[in-house]
Design a protein that fits this description.
Distance between the termini: 32 Å
Strand order of the largest sheet: 1-7-6-5-2-3-4-8
Helix content: 40-55%
Low-confidence stretches: 88-100
Order of helices and strands: HHHHHEHHEHHEHHEEEEHE
Number of strands: 8
Radius of gyration: 21 Å
CATH topology of the largest domain: Endonuclease, Chain A
Largest sheet: 8 strands, mixed
Number of helices: 12
Mean pLDDT: 85
CATH superfamily of the largest domain: Endonuclease Chain A
Shape: elongated
Strand content: 15-25%
CATH class of the largest domain: Alpha Beta
CATH architecture of the largest domain: 2-Layer Sandwich
């Protein structure tokens, strides 16, 4: 079964609150309760520990509990840090025909930067055991995350499966024409990212740890950019005509123990592509 989402994380996502937005709302509520609580919002690291349900020192302080229970009316502090359960009164709109099949669609963003402003990449992969990604150049991982940090994750046990579009394939030329680039432009960018993955990440690892990074290329037509973190979280983008991947709508999918088929659907797509890929 997939990992369940902590209620406070689901509620923060429903309101599209970034860390800064959360702190702004916190401060307004805290001052309304007691002006002495001004400046009491959680630090960046504490905020993301809360979203993971990590209460290393037990429950938040009494004053913090008051603020949280005021911020999320109808939720006790115990419920906020328990697995999320959909309520009829939850303030979010169900899509027509959604039913239970799409319960794992937890965020829709107009672009990749919008997602990353609310859900930082390091939050998603910091404690991951397995990261699987397929797409054109995999900029989300290769360009947005420092090489040294990726190596640190791998040395700590994280495994990566990275599937790039073959720079020399006909599918690459088709995509270059779709985005309006000269033939060879996207191929060159992908070659650079492939070299980074092979030479600046995998080759610099201790020999016995290099098999934790698997790199492959595919020559099939691009339909989705897929990043899967463990058996729990997916970042999905469709490849649209005349639009760069960074500018495409971005969907956050979080696998639920009960209900939701989207994560499984994209996992099947990734697995099918990986099984037909050429490994490097």
């Amino acid at each position: 079964m997939g990992e369940e989402v902590v209620a406070i994380k689901a509620l923060v996502r429903q309101r599209h609150l970034s860390y800064a937005g959360f702190c702004q709302e916190w401060e307004k509520i805290a001052e309304g309760i007691d002006k002495r609580l001004s400046g009491s919002h959680p630090g960046h690291a504490q905020f993301y520990r809360w979203l993971k349900g990590d209460l290393r020192s037990g429950k938040p302080r009494t004053d913090s509990c008051r603020v949280l229970e005021t911020m999320f009316p109808g939720w006790t502090i115990d419920e906020l840090f328990a697995p999320y359960r959909v309520r009829a009164s939850d303030n979010h709109r169900k899509l027509p025909g959604q039913g239970n099949r799409h319960l794992d669609l937890t965020g829709v963003y107009m672009s990749r930067p919008q997602l990353l402003s609310e859900v930082p990449l390091d939050e998603m992969i910091e404690n991951a055991s397995l990261v699987r990604a397929s797409g054109l150049s995999l900029n989300l991982l290769v360009q947005h995350y420092p090489d040294a940090q990726i190596r640190r994750l791998i040395e700590s046990g994280t495994r990566f499966q990275l599937l790039f579009l073959d720079p020399g394939s006909e599918a690459m030329k088709v995509r270059e024409r779709e985005e309006g680039y000269d033939i060879g432009f996207l191929a060159g960018l992908t070659e650079i990212n492939l070299r980074i993955a092979k030479e600046r990440v995998r080759s610099l690892l201790e020999t016995e740890k290099r098999d934790r990074v698997e790199i492959g290329i595919s020559n099939e037509t691009l339909r989705f950019n897929i990043t899967l973190i463990d058996d729990a979280t997916g970042v999905i983008q469709p490849y649209l005509p005349q639009a760069r991947g960074v500018d495409s709508p971005t969907f956050l999918v979080e696998r639920r123990a009960h209900g939701g088929e989207l994560f499984h659907a994209y996992e099947q797509i990734f697995t099918s592509l990986w099984d037909r890929a050429t490994l490097l």
